[in-house]
């Protein structure tokens, strides 16, 4: 599962967006846009994070994942 993670200038996660499957290719696609000082990270969500439902826990573990990726 792919996900976009948005971080601020200090590396804190400020948002996430999942990528759903589009059954209508004519509909086009969209996604988040980074604001000033923010970065977008397109990642493959590790299997151990796919079942996490608590947002705080998800952001904490995603931040660890991003930092380990370098």
Keywords, please?
70 residues; alpha+beta; three-stranded antiparallel beta sheet; 1 helix
Helices, strands, pairings?
Elements: E1 2-7, E2 13-18, E3 39-44, H1 55-69
Antiparallel strand pairs: 1-2, 1-3
Structure description:
The longest helix is centred in the last third of the chain and has 15 residues, at 55-69. The protein has one domain (2-18, 36-69). The chain has a three-stranded antiparallel β-sheet, covered by helices on one side. The chain has 70 residues and is of the alpha+beta class. The two termini are 20 Å apart. It is built from one helix and three strands, in the order βββα. A hairpin with a 5-residue loop joins strand 1 and strand 2. The model has no long low-confidence stretch (mean pLDDT 87).
